[in-house]
Amino acid sequence: HPAPRRHANDWAALKSPLRRFLDACHADFSVETGGAVANYIPELGKADPNHFGISLATIDGYVYEVGDSREPFTIQSMSKPFVFALALDTLGADHVESAIGVEPSGDPFNSIRLDANNHPFNPMVNAGAIACSALIREAEGDGAFEYIRQALGRFAGRELGVDEAVFASESATGDRNRAIAYMLRNSGVIKDDVSKVLEVYFRQCSVLVTARDSAVMAATLANHGINPVTGEQVVTPYAVSRTLSVMTSSGMYDYAGEWIYRVGIPAKSGVGGGILAALPARLGLGSYSPRLDSHGNSVRGIKVCEALSAHYDLHML
Ligand code: DON
Description:
Blueprint: H1 8-13, H2 17-30, E1 36-37, E2 53-58, E3 63-67, E4 73-74, H3 79-91, H4 93-99, H5 126-140, H6 144-156, H7 164-173, H8 175-186, H9 194-205, E5 208-209, H10 211-222, H11 237-250, H12 256-262, E6 267-269, E7 274-279, E8 283-288, E9 291-292, H13 299-311
Antiparallel strand pairs: 1-9, 2-3, 2-8, 4-5, 6-7, 7-8
Helix pairs in contact: 2-13, 3-4, 3-5, 3-6, 3-11, 5-6, 5-8, 5-9, 6-9, 6-10, 7-9, 8-9
Bound molecules: 6-diazenyl-5-OXO-L-norleucine.
């Protein structure tokens, strides 16, 4: 007798253990309503606080998705590791490493404090990221943002757009970043016109991604710079290992110590509500939930990473 034909729903029921785990995370943490949507960039305050998406990409290119995994949000600080990697490859490590430190600051992401040389502590805080954008502008001039957008797209495996309203909103209100950029110009880290550098930085922060994109971007870092979905080598292994290093020590700002102690996976958050985590040679995780804690990290995103690390024993150490 021929086997009975399977209905599509039967296939859906045949979920892998990982898929069932991600579904359970989504269900368990959906009820978590702690934290608040960022509103210091006024436009970000319009995000739906209930959105919640999770995606996990393996280094063999399989992508799992749960919930609002295709909902677009602005990349914000999750752009920082990728632009740092791009700067290393574009300008050379010596140039970049002489301008930006690699020490955790222990300060919040928007701290105006610089290190003893009046350089940014590391490329994961705003000061360091603004310096990276300035370096890319040194190399690429007025084409700097487009160069960054294309590179972010290669990490994600698709062309990425910009949220113009968020860009305009941050440009209109970003005086703290303007102050940081002037301090960097004062110490010679920025040589360019401050407003031009900040235009690149604010645009880079306004690039739109989804949880799925974040997972693929993280998986590209986990996979030595090769996008596991497209097969493209996006950045060099040198740039990837240094980027994962600063994500490990500083990716979660003044929560970085607690993070690496409890979760043990290099990660980067953004005030748009994204968190991405890259476990070398294994996987990339992307989550989106815009309610943030006092450090500017997504509350549910932290829970997902903690649960994943604990359940599969993924702590690196
Ligand atoms: O510069 C800012 O303040 C924002 N464009 C990005 C900050 C951010 O995402 C911090 N992350 N959690």
